Amino acid sequence: MKAFDYLRAKSPAEAAAAAARPGAKFIAGGTNLLDLMKLEIETPATLIDVQDLGLNRIEPTREGGLRIGTLVSNTSLAADTRVRRDYGVLTRAIVAGASGQLRNKATTGGNLLQRTRCPYFYDTNQPCNKRKPGSGCAAIGGYSRQLAVVGTSDACIATHPSDMAVAMRVLDATVETVNAGGQTRAIPIADFHRLPGTTPYIETTLQPGELITAVTLPAPVGGEHIYQKVRDRASYAFALISVAAVIQRDGTGRVAVGGVAHKPWRVEAADAAIPNGAKAVTAQLLAGAKPTQDNAFKLPLVERTIGAVMAQAQDKRAAA
């Protein structure tokens, strides 16, 4: 790990202003960043610790939703009675990820910003456009079982690893930020994560030094909330694919998929196809998919998992 300066900020404005330093990086739980620093994939000149900013509360909004401070731990968020009652897909997604110890340290903002688990990104002996722009992509033509099938580019086929982000996407969350000049903005989560294109190292629409302060959930939409994660072992593994869904009593709903793209993947035309069944939904979700020989299995796996989620929702409605 390379040497770095350390600053413990006392306010969001101070943190954002400090982030104007070249090579500065925010740290909170550090569950992903510290691993990347040990491997020298991340080499910040300054770490700005934001743990003292008081952004660790979950509060109701005037619109009937919830405002989740960026420092709320994954454990606290999943356990919140309002989240469990009104946003069950979020609780289920969080507890499907990582381990209890990691969820105690990981934060809401950090979870959205965690970086891909593509093995070539972590192997510094391999070319990776995400780690070193312009160096190439060893995953293309390499072993790609875990990697993306849709929204890819000739520069990158990495996936976004977060379970929470998939649930946030299906709930139409909004990311709140502040920049070094004190200006705030609200970014719909649909616009927060980027596709790789020719610049896979730019993963979000955050500007340099912009700090996430909260994530806002709109008013509850009711329905059955389901998160189904398919992985190689029962716990502590990233998703091969995952499905977050909210299904209403009339059979309409919304669905987002994880493990298939550079970002949580949702297509509004697929939501409209839900009454027509899993095959129709998958056709819309994965239109234009470009799987590799290693990960072509993800296409039927998405359809089968969506089918299982729909059946689960139907069973719950029948039992209610």
Q: Would you write up a description of this structure?
A:
Helices cover 30% and strands 18% of the residues. The model has no long low-confidence stretch (mean pLDDT 96). The chain is an alpha+beta fold and 320 residues long. Helix 5 runs antiparallel to helix 9 and helix 12 crosses helix 13. The strands form 3 sheets. A 5-stranded antiparallel β-sheet has the order 4-5-8-6-7. A 3-stranded parallel β-sheet has the order 1-3-2, with no helix packed on it. A 3-stranded antiparallel β-sheet has the order 9-10-11, with helices on both faces. It has 13 helices and 11 strands.
- The parts where pLDDT drops under 50 for at least 5 residues are none
**Average pLDDT for all residues:** 96
Strand content: 15-25%
Please summarize the sheet with the most strands.
5 strands, antiparallel
Number of DSSP strand runs: 11
The secondary-structure element order is EHEHEEEHHHHHHHEEHEEEEHHH
Name the helicity range.
25-40%
* Strand neighbour order, sheet with most strands: 4-5-8-6-7
Rg, nearest Å: 19 Å
Measure the end-to-end span: 55 Å
Counting DSSP H or I runs of 4 or more residues, the number of helices is 13
- The SS-based structural class is alpha+beta
Overall body shape: globular
